[in-house]
Amino acid sequence: MTSAAVPPAPVTPASPDTGTASPTAGPPALHAAALALGDDALVLSHRLGEWAGHAPVLEEEVALANIALDLLGQARVLLSLVGDEDELAYLREERAFRNLQLVEQPNGDFARTIARQLYFSVYQNLLYGHLATTDSPLAPLAAKAVKEVAYHQDHAEQWTLRLGDGTAESHERMQRGLDALWRFTGEMFQPVPGLDLDWQAMREQWTARVTEVIEKATLGVPEGPQSGAWAAGAGREGLHTESFGRMLAEMQHLHRSHPGASW
Amino acid sequence: MATAHQPPSTAPHHTAAGAADTAALESAFDAAVAADERIEPRDWMPDAYRSTLVRQMAQHAHSEIIGMQPEANWITRAPSLRRKAILMAKVQDEAGHGLYLYSAAETLGASRDDLLDKLHSGRQKYSSIFNYPTLTWADVGAIGWLVDGAAITNQVPLCRCSYGPYARAMVRVCKEESFHQRQGYELLLALSRGTPAQHAMAQDAVDRWWWPSLMMFGPPDAESSHSEQSMTWKIKRHSNDELRQRFVDICVPQAESLGLTLPDPDLRWNEERGHHDFGAIDWTEFWSVLKGNGPCNEQRITQRRRAHEEGAWVREAAAAYATKNSERKEATA
User: GO CC annotation: what is one (chain B) (predicted)?
Assistant: First the structure.
């Protein structure tokens, strides 16, 4: 491990609206990109891991754990490109994490978890799908991960349909979940330095797919803004929501209690 | 099983067939079991054999899903990403084992919903070992090494159980359990060789889990209520005390390799018997936990019920959607 205990270089917040910002690829930009995507996967994996033993049906214990494991695998590869995976996961403070605020949102009920999965898996599938076709050093990882993520997306879409078009109660819960998380979806399309992607096109593809699934599920596409009062992209700059600190406290406590120990 | 294939015996055989026919079926069944043939779901079988198997498979399935709780307790605090991945995979395997075993029970006409109701209402049990708490990270290792180790000792003979679907499910379960046991051992080894605090954590966990693990083999042979018939039916192949002795003999050298001690001053090699002697088990504690007075009985069943109740609307939605979908398909057909 070389530099992970030091907070990573700040992500350049410039030009959030151009949709095409793409700093030259090089170690700092590559690290920033790997950290952003790695933190997304790490944090969402952790949240899904909280479902273990609490899922509504045994098949979902298996499915949610499977998705969590895929994401954790992605996180470990990505973080290892930046430094020591454990130092990065366990010894950074909240403000040094670069994940989207969406993935850190608490699980809520099953519908809210599915809404979070829908928004994120459609995004991650597009992102990895496009990234796999570039000459980025992350392309091989993306090509492998996109196969896993296609399953995650299918899982989320199938449940969105079941809940949306199931009973009156499930319909209402699913709509509430979609509405509650909508304001965290805008930040997904803020360009991540080091990733040479057409973010505007990705946003359009994401919106088209999510709209199609939501409407097929007899639900309504949320109408509110896609970002909160803070500029979209806050998570990528290390600004998180309150519950994230407690999530990290739980995640990091044991590791931090035994400095220098190996496990 | 090579003998006459009968329709699944939902109808009571003793009224459908005459007494003479029943006797013939029964002796064919007994002969098949004696010849180590497998009984399959559509074969004729005595009602008591069927109900014994359903009870045992259900209890086993319940143990897998309740057993997820003490380990899931540490998923969010696992101290390295590698350990976290291993633990998540292990807890996921347990859910998978629950699925195979409920499915195996369904081959005998039981339904998963009904079996879950029996678990939730306390009419069916799960392994008492899961009524102990996981207080430190080392408990994850102790569960893997000792609890999964004891489970494997119990379960390997079940791969040769006379009932085919159970035996086949157990082959897969045992393969995964042996990976679980190795990860537990390896986790404890890392702690034992780690800092003094880590070593102490490992020793404390082994001290707490050793005796409850020995109790997992059930009461002494003289007091075991289901053993004899199950042995005749080849559902069970070895007695509780035989398996317990086998487990102790396996663990002693492993504890030495781990650099940890087992909390039993009477534990020593008996040259004459070719086995380790060990101290008296506190059966009062065993019966007390079994009756519901363990440290976590209340907590485990409450969490299980809550997950089930809070998930009811999800299952209802899935069922409603499936119905709508099939109606739509019929309408367009």
Answer: cytosol
A49 touches chain B (CB under 8 A): yes
- Average pLDDT estimate for A255-263: 97
Shortest distance between the Cα of A256 and any Cα of chain B, in A, equals 8
Tokens, residue B73 = 């307790």
Taking the CA atoms of residue B30, residue B36, residue B37 and residue B43 in that order, the dihedral angle to the nearest 10 degrees is 30
Query: How far apart are alpha carbons A137 and A80 in whole angstroms?
Result: 13
ipTM reported for the complex surpasses 0.95: no
pLDDT digits (tens, 9 = 90+) for A185-211: 999 999 998 999 999 999 999 999 999
| Domains within chain B, CATH numbers bracketed | 31-282 (1.20.1260.10)
Structure-token match 């605020």, residue found:
A101
Q: Chain A window 209-248: which residues touch B at a Cβ cutoff of 8 Å?
A: none
Q: Which of A140, A97, A139, A102 is nearest to A121 (CA)?
A: A102
Residue B2 confidence class, pLDDT cut points 50, 70, 90: very low
- Picking from B81, B66, B192, B209, the residue whose alpha carbon sits closest to that of residue B140 is B209
Within 127-186 of B, beta carbons closer than 8 Å to A belong to 137
Q: Mutating which of B88, B93, B115 best tests the A interface, going by the most A Cβ atoms within 10 A? A: B88
B78/A254 touch (CB, cutoff 8 Å), yes or no: yes
pLDDT digits 0-9 by tens, B105-126: 999 999 999 999 999 999 999 9
Q: Which residue has the tokens 């999965």?
A: A117
Distance CA A200, CA B147 (A): 54
Q: With CA atoms as reference, report the closest residue to B148 among B171, B178, B121, B173.
A: B178
Scan for tokens 């019929």, then name that residue: B330
Contact A54 B313 (CB under 8 A): no
d(CA A197, CA A24): 12
Instruction: Quote the tokens at residue B259.
Output: 């650099």
Q: Which of A230-244, B199-213, B288-302, B318-332 has the lowest mean pLDDT?
A: A230-244
